[in-house]
Design goal:
Blueprint (H helix, E strand, L loop, with lengths): L1 H5 L4 H4 L8 H19 L2 H14 L4 H13 L3 H14 L4 H13 L3 H14 L4 H14 L4 H15 L4 H14 L2 H13 L6 H13 L3 H15 L3 H10 L32 E6 L8 E5 L8 E5 L3 E5 L5 E5 L14 E4 L8 E6 L2 E7 L5 E3 L1 H4 L2 H4 L3 E7 L8 E6 L5 E5 L5 E4 L8 E7 L8 E6 L4 E6 L7 E3 L11 E5 L8 E5 L5 E7 L2 E8 L14 E5 L8 E5 L4 E6 L5 E5 L5 E6 L8 E5 L5 E7 L5 E8 L17 E6 L2 E6 L5 E6 L6 E5 L5 E5 L4 E5 L10 E5 L4 E6 L22 E6 L6 E2 L2 E7 L4 E16 L3 E3 L3 E2 L9 E3 L3 E2 L2 E4 L22 E4 L2 E10 L10 E10 L3 H9 L9 E5 L5 E5 L4 E2 L4 E6 L11 E19 L7 E6 L2 E6 L2 E5 L8 E9 L9 E3 L3 E2 L1 H4 L7 E3 ...
Parallel strand pairs: 29-35
Antiparallel strand pairs: 1-28, 2-3, 3-4, 4-5, 6-7, 7-8, 8-9, 10-11, 11-12, 12-13, 14-15, 15-16, 16-17, 18-19, 19-20, 20-21, 22-23, 23-24, 24-25, 26-27, 27-28, 29-32, 30-31, 30-33, 33-34, 36-37, 36-40, 38-63, 39-40, 40-62, 41-55, 41-61, 41-63, 42-44, 43-52, 45-54, 46-48, 47-48, 48-54, 49-53, ...
Helix pairs in contact: 3-4, 4-5, 5-6, 6-7, 7-8, 7-9, 8-9, 9-10, 10-11, 11-12, 11-14, 12-13, 13-14
Amino acid sequence: MALCLLAIGLVACQAEVPTPGTKDYRTAVSAFYTGVAALQVGENNRAEQQMKRVAKLAPGEPAAWANRGVLAAQQNDLEAAARYLEQARSLAPDHAPFWLLSGMLERERGSYDRARSHLQRATEIDSTNAPALYALAQVSEQEGGETSLQDARRLVDRLLAQRPSNLLLLVERARLAGKAGDGDVLRETIGRLEERSSGWPSAVQSSLQDVRAAAGAPSEATSQVAFLKNDLQRVPAYQAARDAVQPPALTGRDSAVARLLRLTPPASRPAPADTGLTFVPDTLRSTGEWSWIQHVTLAEGVPPDVMMTDGETLRIETGLGRVYTMPFPGGPANEAPAANAVASFDMNYDFRPDLAAVGAGGVRLYQQQPDSSFADVTAKAVPAAVRDEAYAGAWPADLDMDGDLDLVLARDAGPPTVLRNDGDDTFSTRSFFAEVDALRAFTWADLDGDGTPDAAMLDDDGRLHVYDNQRSGSPRFTRRALPDTLREGRGLTTGDVDRDGTLDLLVLGEGGAVTRLTPRLSTWETERLVEADAQFPEAPIEATRLLTADLDNNGGLDLLTATPRSGNIWLTDSTGAFIRRPLSVEHTVLSAADVRGEGRLDLLARTEEGAPLRLTNRGAKNYQSQRIQPRAARTRGDRRINPFGIGGEIELRSGLLYQKRSITKPTVHFGLGRRTGADVARIIWPNGTVQAEFNLVSTQTALARQRLKGSCPWVYTYDGEGMRFATDFLWRTALGLRINAQGEAQVIHSKDRIFIPGEHMARRDGAYDVRITGELWESHFFDQVELMAVDHPAGTEVRIDERFHLPPPDQSVTPLTDPKPVAQARDQDGQDVTDLVRSKDGQYLDTFAFGPFQGRAEEHFVEIDLGEDVPTDGPLWLVADGWVYPTDTSINLAISQSGYAPPQGVTVEVPDGNGDWTVAKSDIGFPAGKSKTMLIDLSDIGGPDGPHRVRLRTNMEIYWDRLAWAAGRPDTKIRTHRMTADSARLRDRGFSKVVQTDRRKPTVPVYDSIATTTRLWRDLEGYHTRFGDVRELVTQTDDRYVIMNAGDEMALRFDAPPPPPEGWTRDFVLVGDGWVKDGDFNTGHSRTVRPLPYHGMDDYSTPPGPLEEDPAYQMHPGDWETYHTRYVTPQDFHRALTVTGENKASSRSE
């Protein structure tokens, strides 16, 4: 093995690869694909461990060394990255992607000669490698040699010969022609761009005309081409062109080497279809005639139960032998129910599925009790006005994205009725989808890949309706235009049939034809998956089913169509085509589920006479399966998502076989073919948070981890030894949301200050070093950043009030005596908690009970005895150090709809003299984030002897670290030095490792440990500030700002003033002016960074229009030519695990 590590050529190491079929081979292959998946979803520590394992078991596998190089580069260890990539090249000297990665690394290191050499080698090996050719063109121009411009033009022309319609290459050709003074080529290229400009936004077309107008002076036209290039970044066709040729960033998912080169890889497609699949009829316990049968999961750890109805009685037979019956609302005639007559959902967050039954006699809600029986709660839960109307279907969906499931009810006539779940065991009615008359089929899934489910429906006439979910702070749906060629539909479902990471809309049409519809830009991509059959029996929409499921477990999504008397199955083969496989038994198929718990999907059906049947799945091939059970946390203090994750998505990778499912049931089934297990499952929860699960067992329960989506940018300071976390910043300046239900979802204000103790800030080369990072699901707007040095005499302390309150508190520097611990503290239960609040030691007062929602606790207080030596005259302050676990906008929406009291800030109470307590200060706010100080003025409360005893009461998750008192020293002279940044640079850093030892302690980031540079969030789309010098934007408040994305870092350097006088000491205040906008689905316009904020803006409700009409843009349009030229989209997040297109670092293919 030592020889292999030192080998220059390939031959020495070829023997160091395990033989297929051996244990080492299976272990190495599994470790490789687990490592690749971990790298692509941002689990870099796991990825490194797995790649080390591969390198040990199969040191001759170059892909493992290449990935170790990528991982080292993401940790900014460029020397190690170069060594690992050199090892990969020595093992596979004719593999162009390795030379491309090495070229990108040398470019990052500033070694253009070596970068050019590596990239030239990549293009010699593969003359069609577009990313290598484009990178070589860029490096050639950057070198600035005598022939650099000529070389760059030649390479771009070479690329255009291969891709003549690529917009990015045409723009580059125009720019280089202008730079070279070649007017003929410039004008010819402008003409080619004009031919492709149809459909561009008017502002972009105007930019193109500016280029045309300047073409007479080619060198002057160069700047106009640069403006056009920036404008084009918002055009999806340009984005696709850029993705086709742009070289992989070492910090991105495209740099991962996803394919083995020396180890024999498993197939990346589904296994061959199991054409020997049969379904054997088995009778169920129940006798009699039943018009409807369906599976339902009522309990954990057991296979699904079976429910059925005859129009009069709803009967449930559990796998444990129990039987429950309840009335079915079939009306006077006990009419046969529709296909979606009973919906299973958890209405009250007790993790026990409840039932909504609808029919000609109305709607009935049955709530599952602790003993598994059902209670009729219709009278309490459903408004009387809609209780007894005739309905033809019910579907659960979280339409307002607040964490609980609503119900969509299909009326016999007229638009659907929506029962909004108010979170307190009651529902209220809402009206959406007014254009849909007599709804008959409904599906709720993210069709456009923006993170929020969209609604698709069929009405009684078979017309298809699709509504985009606008996620604008309140439910808002807009109709989407549909293809004119689409005929009426009979059934509807969703599924990622082409495994590209986007859920497709599947429509069952006349004659059993099935059509795929996938939204692409402003149109639809359509494909006929199954052709019409003249023998296909027609039936009403409410009696017709189109289902997707992997029935043979080969790893491909199959189709099942069913009408009252027959059904057909189309199995997906290894090429992605559908093979028709008729059902073994001609019966009415109503449902597919793993009823026996054996990993195969059985069918539930009924005979023509109404007898219920289980059609047992028998396959000829022993294909394996994976079941995922997504679950929210069974704890109070959460309720971010519904208990079973309905409306979320799961992506699964086994090797390079990629699959995606929408979460519609408590258990999600995947086939694996001959694979024995999955490498990773990525769960995208309904609230937008993401987690990856590794080391999966056959039935894997995935518990949602509680994680903050937003907590504002984080600040680090240099303390003499390294960068240390200070606190979060701009906490009080959120856009488009309510912070802990305080204020409206609008623009609040823009200023914030944080206190930094002197021991946390040290000079480095005569300056103070401050870093501000974006790490959560947010974009940040920094208009001004200043550092204030506060010098004061020894023996005097200074603090600022760091609480959130509306209106904002005065944050002036306040001189104090040294804070003294309180004499005693007791909590709401009478426990002595003095030791917990005596000092700032990270031991928090956490003895209160969680409430029903994250951030909203049960009411609690701490009763404080300040002691007898409290001064009775002059300013007196309670110095309350602590942190808050906040709600978010979606949780606030859920609270506002329920009967629960909203979060209330701290209320100060004092004894009333009669043995009770009275309010002295009401709702004065709360600590604004992590490790903040509230200065509470006690001078004006209490009796003539002073406020010896006070209570701090709240129902928020506020964790006090230290409670102390201090006398004010308003006459003490202090000296302040305000420093603007001597330098400010924006750069791509990645995401810090975070440590949280307990749910009741704050997360603490570790600056020196980069967890990943992969996109962890669905980024807000729009123009962000390009990397580099940004000092001009942050030196004054002028609505010219830095726009930071998650993963960015702004590094600020402040020239230090002279030291304080002898006997004085220095602390600091970081002063910021700007805004924060998060991606929560109920934050206003959270898809994008727009509308852009500005001072004086007091309304955030107007949807963003064209960029050029935005008031903030109009103030400083030049900044979008010079600074805001980095256009960010969520596409890297969306396609993190997909492998339908080859990875750029793995293959030349696009």
